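Key idea: predict the complex, not the pieces.
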Amino acid sequence: MTQLAGIAAQFTELMLAVLLAPLLTGWVNQCRAWLQNRSAPGLLQPYRNLNKLFRKEVVLAHNASPLFRIAPYLIFGSLALAAAIVPTLDIDLPLNAAADAIALVGLLALARLFVALAGMDVGTAFGSLGARREMMVGFLAEPALLMVLFTASLISGSTSLSSIVHTLAHKQFVIYPSMAFAGVAFTMVSLAENARIPVDNPATHLELTMIHEAMVLEYSGRHLAMIEWAASLKLFVYSCMGLALFLPFGVAESGDWPGIVLALPALLLKLAIGGAALALIEIMSAKMRIFRTPEFLGTAFLLAVLAMLVHVLLGG
Amino acid sequence: MLAHYGPQLINLFAAILLLLAFAMLSQRRILSLINLYAAQGFVLCLTTTLVAALTGQHHLYGSALLTLVLKVIFLPWILHRLIRKLNVKWDVETLINIPATMLVGIVLVVLAFNLALPISQLSGTVTRSTLGIALASVLLSFLMMITRSKAIPQVIGFLAMENGLFFAATGAVYGMPMVVELGIGLDVLIAALILGMFLFQIRERFDSLDTRHLERLKEH
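Result:
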């Protein structure tokens, strides 16, 4: 019975992530447009884009390999799996026994690997340029993300995201100074990983400054739709990971169905605030030179290391 | 409620103070540097108020007020006016590149924690665990003074170092006597004013605020 309930909760959470991810992207775009004094596109615009792209015909380059065609599905699949690991509504997730925070970072790396391979596959200049830049950002961001997760793991004594959320949300409320450092580091990493403004501009049309967009220039039709959906999903995964680590309140205990019903509006509220904060950060900062990125992410890594140090030295 | 969360909040503020010290270390722009200094003063003021509320040491309210007026409002205002008058808008030059500086900073933090550990074990205050952080922010400000080549960031480093010392005093022994605190506050104020004059003199003499010019003793 509990097994069944767990599987149901897991499935609900996965569907919720997949369906809500474009909405979060739409909300961030809307907030950004408001802050820039532009008239905002509708909240449902990402869904309309996806719908349009799914109907369009796929144009493939002559020299595209099979990898180019299956990559969008692999990327989407690994990000959907990553979304299923992060506890959003309730902490009793069967997948959590199989995959912990380190596996989550691995899944994100797998998605990045296929984006980069697909970018290089057709052999255009921009594709391989984007892929190289993406790998540069990735190899710097990954250790910082791992350090942030390790800080939370040190606090809870486990690398499983469920027990991290359980320790932070359901035990007695304690203020962890180390999480202040980890929070700043995590914000920096997620800005870089989600192709957001100080590192990359998701709305850019200037090829020389692109990172993410340059890799997917060759995609069209349903492949592009899958990739864009996966990008939204990635933003969703990072937002939920941030919420799970730094604002885990409202996530239900295992088997607590009324709690799960209450957890949904709490999650939506937290995501709305988080999305608005992301738009605000993007408005306030200017895009930096690509060669400043190592310094930016190096700072994030050092802050994450400092978070672990503060945890060990302050003793909590 | 306050008795339970108070010490935790102090630890949090201490961590934010350390975070701000690192932000100052990595900052390239003078304007942001001044704003960070003001923010550090504000966190210091909050911490002092909290310690005062927790321990019932009423003179600490006075020093919190002093911090607010002097370090959050007055000194940043002087610094803003100074850079407007000196017309300095350049990015801050560093002698070592910033990631290396941050690495040295982390080593300093570990060192400071190790140094403070035996002292804080002797101390019986609620804030004893923050002593390491206070020492670390003093050392980080030192580092900032050493690694910057222009005069204004060095002045800000000096002022930030005083913030760290003040925090150490609050953390280790619930603050110094009021007379000493007033004296130090005035000292810092006067130092900022004199250093301001000094900056004008340096610029007049060398047409630049780079303190490396001062290394030469003779004129050529």
